[in-house]
Amino acid sequence: MASGCMLRCTKGVRLPLNRSKCYMPQTMRDIFEDIVKHQPLDPMESARQGGRLKLRKRFYEKAEAKAGPEGVQVVLDGKPIRTPARRLLGAPAPALAEAIAAEWQAQGDVIDPAAMPLTRLANAILDGVTDKPAAVAAEIEKYLGSDLLLYRAETPEGLIAAQARHWDPVIEWARATLGARFILAQGVTFVRQPDGAAAAAARAIPSDPWKLGALSSITTLTGSALLSLALDAGRITVDQAWTAAQVDEDWSTATWGRDELALERHALREIEMRAAAKVLALA
């Protein structure tokens, strides 16, 4: 999964970046791949394109999860489907595979990938994480060196207080539980963290590809590996993690007014983030 970055303004505020049962399995796989072949593995880009993905007519009656030789697979009318890289679409845990199948079953007359965040994330994990977990973990660790939570606004006082209220408990948790002693910075100038701080926190990064992929998605969407690690550890809830990630953006909206395009992107990112949190919980 590719990592993203958040832009910061001069005051330290980060800115957002016909149904038929008579078909051959190969044909079904080709249709599925045509639906998702342009889907980016980067969850941020996936969120941006969510409303523009090509829609196709639904070509199956029933989607369900069934146990198979490679875990629990998602099947359409009993036929397996595959990811863009032609891996069997499924999940290691029955509950997660059932949740993915439920997305397919919930589709109407057309298949809308924008309404299938778990499926998109499963594709990304199966095709982009399982073969290179170390590289994905390294990308998450990079965030720890310039994590969202480490860079604080210089003004105004209301924003400074909001950042402290939502971010300080996670910083303290990382210090007390992970042994990661980060230092805070004001403004946008990069501050090198103490030797060992990021490495200490990085030891909490999971090795399981599914959890790792979900963690990578949350990190990229929020701009904070610390928030994703705290969520994985149960230190914060998904609601708390999302609220913390949006402190700067929410302050900007309250101060300068609504930006409909930004709100749309915000909603798409939240859908992606909550799907990743579900994978983290069920994997």
What does this structure look like?
The protein is an alpha+beta fold and 283 residues long. The chain folds into two domains: 25-128, ATP12-like (2-Layer Sandwich); 133-282, ATP12-like fold (Orthogonal Bundle), CATH 1.10.3580.10. It contains twelve helices and ten strands. It has helices at 25-36, 43-49, 94-105, 117-128, 133-144, 157-178, 197-202, 209-222, 225-232, 238-245, 247-256, 260-282; strands at residues 7-8, 14-15, 56-57, 63-68, 71-76, 79-80, 90-91, 110-111, 151-152, 185-186. Strands 4, 5, 6 and 7 form a four-stranded antiparallel beta sheet that branches. A two-stranded antiparallel sheet has the order 1-2. A two-stranded antiparallel sheet has the order 3-8. Helix 4 (117-128) packs across helix 8 (209-222) and helix 8 (209-222) packs antiparallel against helix 12. It is globular, with a radius of gyration of 20 Å. Residues 1-52 have low confidence and may be disordered.
